[in-house]
Amino acid sequence: MSPAQVPCGVPVVAAWGMGIDSTAMIIEWVAKGMPLSVVLTADTGTEREETYAFLPLFQQWMDERGIEHHVVRYTPRRFKNWPPYFTLLENCLTNATLPSISFGRHSCSQKWKIQPQDQWVSDWKPAQDCWRRGGKVLKLIGYDASPADSRRYAHREGHISERFDYRYPLREWGWDRARCASRIREEGLPVPIKSACWLCAAQKVDELRSLPRWCLRLIVLVEARAGPRLRSVEGLWRSSTASRPGSMTAYIRDQRLLDPDEVDEIIAGAPVDLVEFQKAAASVPVEDRQPMCDWIERFNAGIAHVTA
């Protein structure tokens, strides 16, 4: 099916990851006069500051063209004895674990990105009407034609869904990352950075080095909280390579991105304090529990402590 062959009346949903590829895909798709029903963005709560800064700029671009768009989020329903949590970071701290990509899996993307988008679509009347007629919603995915995205595409190629047809316009056009960046500049927009969680194992050394101090502190906390349960991986980067250790904390310490004494203080005190916070939450009804974000806010301020 060529880009010109979008069946009349089929709802078209674009997955916008707030990065270079999906931004260029939407710009060019609209420029070609192709139908676009809605743009969905899944927010994990752990995107980089630069990504969140770009979000309103492109939202304005879509508003000016009358394009419907929504930010969607995974919403936990059951908290058992835990403080309520609502981001990938909070989920990791609650369960004393790392993002699934650090274990060689990709369920964090499924849970925090794909699932909330699909849930939004399942509640959307145009999609419901389409499915009732026996049709499928068309979903646009921003994989480009570069070798790296070709490997990602290989995992999706041939994927069959009862509810969705998937299209990869950038691959149809033969666009790589550089062409995408050029198209965004042609539109008069700043080129966003690569969209990725700052906890992601796919993060390169230079990307880690560019993170603000508060992110580095939380990375140390996440690895320290998960540390006692880790058996097969060293840390967020999984295993060591010639250029870096498997633990981001080890790199942060070795490169003095944080003072080593500060790293030691976080490792020694913060996980214990967090466990006490969780125990306090377990003793009260869920509607009265302080959310995990309250503890993180105090940690970021350097004054984390337990409250009743």
Automatic annotation (TrEMBL):
Gene3D superfamilies the UniProt entry points to: HUPs
InterPro entries tied to this protein: Rossmann-like_a/b/a_fold
Protein name from the UniProt record: Phosphoadenosine phosphosulphate reductase domain-containing protein
Organism listed in the record: Novosphingobium mangrovi
Taxonomic superkingdom: Bacteria
